[in-house]
Amino acid sequence: MIHCIVCDTELPSEAFLSLPNMPACAQNIPSQEELPADRGIDLDMFQCPCCGLVQLGCPPVHYYRDVIRAGGGTTTMTDLRRSQYAHFIKLCHLEGKRILEVGCGQGEFLEMLKGFPVAGYGIENKRELVDMARAKGLNVVQDFAEDASHKIKGAPFDAFMQFNFIEHQPRPNDMVQCIRDNLVDGGVGLVTAPAFEYIRHDCVYEIMRDHLAYYTDGALRFLFMRNGFDVLESGVVNRDTNYVIVEKRENLTKETFKTNLSEIKTGLNDFVAKSKSEGRRLAFWAASHQCFTAASFLDHPEDIAYIVDSAKFKQGKFSPTSHIPIIAPEHFYAAPTDDILVLAPGYTTEIANLIRQNARKDIRLFALRSDRAEAL
What we know:
The chain folds into 2 domains: about 60-250, Vaccinia Virus protein VP39 (Rossmann fold, 3-Layer(aba) Sandwich); about 275-375, Rossmann fold (3-Layer(aba) Sandwich), CATH 3.40.50. About 30% of the residues lie in helices and about 25% in strands. The chain contains 10 helices and 17 strands. A 7-stranded mixed β-sheet has the order 6-5-4-7-8-11-10, sandwiched between helices. The chain has a 6-stranded mixed β-sheet with strand order 14-13-12-15-16-17, sandwiched between helices. Strands 1-2-3-9 form a 4-stranded antiparallel β-sheet, with no helix packed on it. A hairpin with a 6-residue loop joins strand 2 (about 40-45) and strand 3 (about 55). The longest helix is centred in the C-terminal third of the chain and has 24 residues, at about 255-275. The radius of gyration is 30 Å and the shape is elongated.
């Protein structure tokens, strides 16, 4: 039984594609002496029925933590990365910020960051590549983002980058969570991965054991959304590569809501008390869920004369918890209150116009905006 490496859903019992006698790895190329021991392997490909990720049913290559790039210094790649950097920095307002490349190899892409108004940092697992990057004057340390609780030296960072590395990882959730927890609140990221859409239609020979996972746009978005990011942008670059720009999702706290709730309760009760102190009768308009919730915040719901609503099935009944009677508009026009608080977001203007056309002109109209009642 095999499970999806992203969402843990059980994968189909049969592969949708089997490729016999495939290279066992793409980086450890055999020498003349090693040829007798070199053997191909059979690769089975499965698609997760839940998140859609296409993946191999085999263990990762032993060097999945290490990055070796052959095309990092080409003109094509240099132009592509610099274009991506310019867009990423502008979109996410990263001027003067600290950006970490996760899995930076010998620093080919970090070097391309020079000239941009940011500070570049990198982590790489392979000691030899770290030394090569540091020899270029790059700020790179030996590290690997594999455990969710792991702290990276220099963290928290304002942003991160990762280029065609996530597809090698057998535990992508742990890697993404580790990255997230080493970012500042609101931290952002730019990530690329080989596009399965391209591989499927144009380039099946891209399949190799080194790439455990084959991300579509949707699967790549799902991975980051599942692990605490919101996707700001996604798309395709260079025909064969999917990318996402993500933002660390805010963790909501009860303190935030406690403050907001307190302000709304105070503002609403102050408004009701002021209307009463002026000797004016107050009613609510719209027996909506917003109205019912707001009415439950009242210290003295008996100070509300009634709630007006045009839905016949609500008329003659009472608001839950606050027990304010609900009446038809015709009853209001016959015996109107002095003040009306409209509690139907999206219909406020329509209701206000209706009241002005059919009721006394001296009735004061209000709408609840955030934590205060505003005159209409």
